[in-house]
Known about the structure:
By secondary structure, the chain is α/β, with parallel strands linked by helices. It has helices at 20-29, 58-71, 91-100, 121-146, 178-190, 200-203, 213-221, 243-253; strands spanning 4-8, 34-41, 77-85, 105-109, 154-155, 194-198, 227-230, 257-262, 265-270. Helix 1 links the parallel strand 1 (4-8) and strand 2 (34-41). Helix 4 (121-146) packs parallel to helix 5 (178-190) and helix 7 packs across helix 8 (243-253).
Amino acid sequence: MIISDCHLHSSFSSDSDAALEAMVQQGIQLHLKAMCMTEHLDYDYPPNSEQLDFLLDFDSYEKELFTLKEKYSDQIELLFGIEMGLMDYLGSRYQKIAEAYPFDFIIGSSHLVNGIDPYEPEYFREHGVFKGMQLYFESILNNIEACSTLDYQVYGHLDYAIRYAPDQNASFHFRDYQDIIEEIIRKLIRRDKGIEVNSTGLRYGLGQPNPHFDIIKCYHDMGGEILTIGSDAHKPEHMAYAFDQVAELLKLAGFDHYTLFRNRIPYDIPL
Length: 271
């Protein structure tokens, strides 16, 4: 049973209109024991039609979160996190932020490939699915190496880009990318980093979380043990989405626990 949601966004993230308190109240309604807000920070995000900058008002975010943490302390454990959109030249800049604030949990993730978000239709129009995903995985490898000293705990939604492919994951086959995925996993394990299982893929109709079950199973079989669960909800009604299905997939992959971070220290929670 999954009793915490550790990938959540409110209006402190550019792409959400949800009040932070509304997210907390929904977590209580869902009987979660813990929830971690992970507001977006993507330095140098390119201009876009939606005018999203993915910057973060750290001080206001911290102040409101800790006010709500105290207000609801007898009903839910509210944790302080952030999602950093990694690029290969931003490691030291992000590390300054990691050191400046008392985050419980930091997700490192990849949203851009050569300055383009796969969310934009032109990404897959230009590259096609196979090359587009290959380039995406290569960018993750580069980010892991370049941000090797950054204190993040897990790499988020390892196959994020597939959500936006023309046929989504209908033509995605783990074996086509197995070598590079195994290298990603090997590097994360060597650096004591985990992976996130993100239920958005199920909400998007992929029939799989992000990453795909085959990647989760590969992570387990290669000795990976640090695994967090998040809905990536940007509004209250998407919180803890399909967590029952996620729990069954994790058990099928061989896991008997998932991970919750407090003060960036991992705690195993039984499934």
